[in-house]
Structure formats: C-alpha cells, structure tokens
Specification:
Number of helices: 9
Helix content: 40-55%
Structural class: alpha/beta
Distance between the termini: 52 Å
GO molecular function: hydrolase activity
Number of strands: 6
InterPro entries: Macro_dom, Macro_dom-like
Shape: globular
Order of helices and strands: HHHHEEHHEEHEHEH
Organism: Candidatus Anaerostipes avistercoris
Protein name: Protein-ADP-ribose hydrolase
Keywords: Hydrolase
Radius of gyration: 19 Å
Strand content: 5-15%
C-alpha cells in the first residue's frame, strides 16, 4: 500500500488505530490536520502492547520518519562542544555539549528516557513528559519491546515486578533518529531531598554510562532526569549529572565521542553553563 503524502498516511493510520481500539472505534475527530494528528498520537499513547498488522506498522514508520525529517534531524556535527562554543576549560570540554531542544530530534548513539517503574511509556494521551514524547516519536514498536523486556523480568522476579530506581534498560530507537533509547527510572522527590535520593539519581547516570560502554555506544544525550514530574530540584540534579559524568569520564574518556546534556528549559541551560563553562 502506497500513499502520496502525510495526509493520506494520517487518515489511514487514524482509521486503523481506531479500529484497533474497541473503546474508541467511533471516536469523532475534527477534520483539520492538527486535530487528526493529536487523535492518532492519543490512540498510540493509550494502546496496550500487542501485535499490529505489518502493513500498519510499515505506514506508521513511514509517517513518523517523514515527521522526523520535517522537524529537522540534529547530528553531532551540528552541535558544538563546550570547548568550541564557550572555550570551556573543563577537562572533557572536547567531549561534552549543552544542547537546548527536542531530544527526539537527536541522531545520537542513544538518547536517555526518564521512564516510570512500569517501563512501558506514558499512557496519558499527549502528556508533555519526555517519556510520552519519546514513545510517540519512536512508534508503538518501542512499547512492544519494553513490554517483552519487562515480561522476561516478571518471569524471573514475579508478576508484580517493577523496574528499580537507578538502573538502565537498552532498546532500539525505531523511528527516532537515535539508534537506541536507554530507559532509566529516576528518583521521585516527595517532601524533601535527601542523601538517598541524590545517590539514586547518581546511579541513573552511572547505569546509563555503563550501558553505553557495554554496548559500544559512543554518543549519548541525557535529558534532565527526574526534574519534571518527579520534582527533583533542577540545580541539584544538574550538579549530580555533571559530577557523575565527569567522574565516569576519568576512567572511560576513550569510550565516548560525545556526552550531551540536553535541556528544554532556560533555567536548566543556565545551571549547566554555570557548572561547565
């Protein structure tokens, strides 16, 4: 099945995903493109893991790959190191970058997803968390792989298994420009920050970096783990991220071409600049 443009692909996918969802089979959607696109993303977000016809997956992949091109794929050569951009004197200034933007545009070896303990992505339609954004851009194959990995762990550890804080799980990137996604569950800050929560966040960064070394992934882009829905103070999170990465590079600098601190908010960009420049 061939389609001439994104409009036709969108209509086909919306029809197929509505039929796949018994509850929303009769969902009424406005005719404009943005409304239809939002509806498709919502249906993808709420869909439980499970098989989908190969033809539907093929069209979904074509649709998402075209969207990625239109958003603009950002390669490592497009991002300056802090040595090039700011003349930083940091010991690893030639390997570290601060980049503000949409992490789903990055063509890195891996991007980091701040996941929840279920490790299946965000099920809230069009939620603004990074977990939702990454799964939406990657396609439903990502949730399926995550579910397979978690099922393997449930067989071993029991059906109530949830991924502990601070570990890392590697998957393919599917329709993302990045080759891989490394999922990690960050700490949730309730009443106050304490030593355990700080150590948990440190473990997230260490686990991701170890995963990169073990899988020969030479470039990785970190999101600001736990600073959003999990309420970790942004300034403290940045300090832990920079120190953990710097300490790790003391022993593994040769294993990495680039480590990117990806920020979305102005305040995070400011904190990382203060620490690295």
């Amino acid at each position: 099945m061939k389609f001439s443009d994104q409009e036709e692909r969108l209509d086909y996918l919306l029809k197929e995903f509505k039929e796949d969802s018994v509850q929303y089979r009769d969902l009424e959607v406005d005719d404009d493109y943005d409304s239809r696109r939002m509806a498709l993303r919502s249906l993808m977000n709420i869909r439980m893991p499970g098989e989908m016809p190969e033809e539907v997956l093929k069209v979904q992949d074509e649709f998402l790959e075209e969207e990625a091109k239109k958003k603009g794929i950002v390669t490592l050569s497009d991002i300056q190191t802090i040595q090039e951009e700011y003349q930083s004197s940091h010991p690893y200034a030639d390997k570290i970058s601060i980049w503000k933007g949409d992490i789903t545009r990055l063509a890195a070896g891996a991007i980091v997803n701040a996941a929840n303990s279920q490790m299946l992505g965000c099920f809230i339609p069009c939620h603004r968390c990074i977990d939702n954004a990454i799964h939406s851009a990657a396609g439903i194959e990502l949730r399926e792989e995550c579910n397979c990995r978690m099922n393997q762990k449930r067989v071993r550890f029991g059906q109530q298994y949830e991924e502990p804080t601070g570990r890392a799980m590697l998957t393919k990137g599917y329709n993302l420009p990045a080759e891989h996604v490394i999922h990690t569950v960050g700490p949730i800050v309730g009443y106050r920050l304490n030593r355990k929560l700080k150590n948990d966040l440190k473990n997230c960064y260490e686990s991701v970096l170890k995963c990169c070394v073990e899988n020969n992934i030479r470039s990785v882009a970190f999101c600001c783990i736990s600073t959003g829905e999990f309420h970790f103070p942004n300034d403290e999170a940045a300090k832990i991220a920079v120190k953990t990465v710097s300490d790790f590079l003391d022993h593994h600098a040769g294993d990495f071409d680039r480590v990117i601190f990806n920020v979305f908010k102005d305040i995070d960009e400011q904190y990382y600049k203060e620490l690295l420049i």
